[in-house]
């Protein structure tokens, strides 16, 4: 088969899967079709965004609907930038910005997220490193990259979606491994890129966020090869930067929308926080960090901590006037607008939410710009300063008034225990010599795949392969499948054959 001329369209195994599109004519659109047609994408309909799809009693975003909206926003950004004559030469110099690439990467960016959202991600990382001995642990972005890449065993591609280099590179929000690529590793830069720093008090564990495990390092290098000399080796491609920015925008808008629908986001509490800071911001600026921490429950204190955090982490763009203007804009639009009337499920209420979402999305898309020499903490594509601050304030509202709730914490602690118990039960099953022939077929295949990826002289090779296989297996479950599997393994389920769907 004749390969496309664009080096960014090269595939790892030569484009063997082309059933859903004309590869030669539109390789990036074929990638998009391949992603949407995969079972990995379908599975996201049963995976938590913030709360479990069945746990709220009302419709909220799951990973599937979130991915679709990120793709919608990302394509709108890419089409706007490519139509702007001011950016034509700069985009070409940086490696290009194709709307099909951006859309495909956005659709694929969450494929590796495990059951129960970010909570599941943290739990699996802890279990992978501390219980299963995997130095790379678990990371949702790296897992997504592992899913789409093709691994060759015995001359045959066994997994993966066979995507082009450009789409795989555009998926890399964090184009480094946890510990040692590239060299020098981004966590040692000053300041480190966003996500590259090690966790506080644990520098040896490597970056908090990373884009690929060491098993996919050769693939990462191949995907990034067309961009060598155009962008820094730790920097996102333009297309990855568009996708990352779109993800931030969708997260900021749609999570606020969700919890207004559910009735969790209350006007009074949000108003008290924003208005108190507006009224007393002069006083708050004179308060020490220690004194501020001692008044954590006082209205206005939390958003003052946000202002200080932005200066500490993102002093390249943090600005007090822009922050104050963002607080005022969010107060008008959210407190006096969306939250002024409780969501009652009426057509009028639905239309009001839709207008809120559309208005904010258009505002953010119109504020996108391309920067030739961005900060270490930013990509080449970024929001203008006023809208960047607005995104931070919207995300603050979600964190403060949803994620910090004790009832959500109670729910998530149960999910964390469930995942721990499930990993332990699968580990015991794998170690039982009498059960080898009755292992779930996918788990058996994943063990073989993981062992083939490791060097024959790897210490504890078999144990590490089993550990990686368990992590891969659990990460491919939906929320309800994880619950059903643990019920079956614990003897709590009496429905013998319906449990087989998770195997």
Brief descriptors of the model:
single chain; 4 strands; mainly alpha; two-stranded antiparallel ribbon; two-stranded antiparallel sheet; 503 residues; 3% strand
Structure description:
This protein is 54% helix and 3% strand. The chain is mainly α and 503 residues long. Helix 6 crosses helix 17 (406-431) and helix 17 (406-431) packs across helix 19. The longest helix has 26 residues, at 406-431. It is globular, with a radius of gyration of 23 Å. Residues 14-24 have low confidence and may be disordered.
Fold blueprint:
Blueprint: H1 27-36, H2 39-43, H3 63-82, H4 88-94, H5 99-108, H6 117-131, H7 140-148, E1 151-153, E2 156-159, H8 165-170, H9 217-224, H10 238-262, H11 267-285, H12 289-294, H13 301-313, H14 320-335, H15 347-366, E3 368-370, E4 381-383, H16 385-403, H17 406-431, H18 441-453, H19 461-475, H20 479-489
Antiparallel strand pairs: 1-2, 3-4
Helix pairs in contact: 1-5, 3-5, 3-10, 5-10, 6-17, 10-15, 10-16, 11-13, 11-14, 14-16, 17-19, 17-20, 18-19
In what range is the share of β-strand residues? under 5%
Distance between the termini: 36 Å
What is the H-and-E element order?
HHHHHHHEEHHHHHHHHEEHHHHH
Computed structural class: mainly alpha
Summarize this structure briefly.
The chain is mostly helical. The protein has 2 domains: 1-61 and 91-175 and 211-236 and 413-502, no CATH class; 266-404, no CATH class.
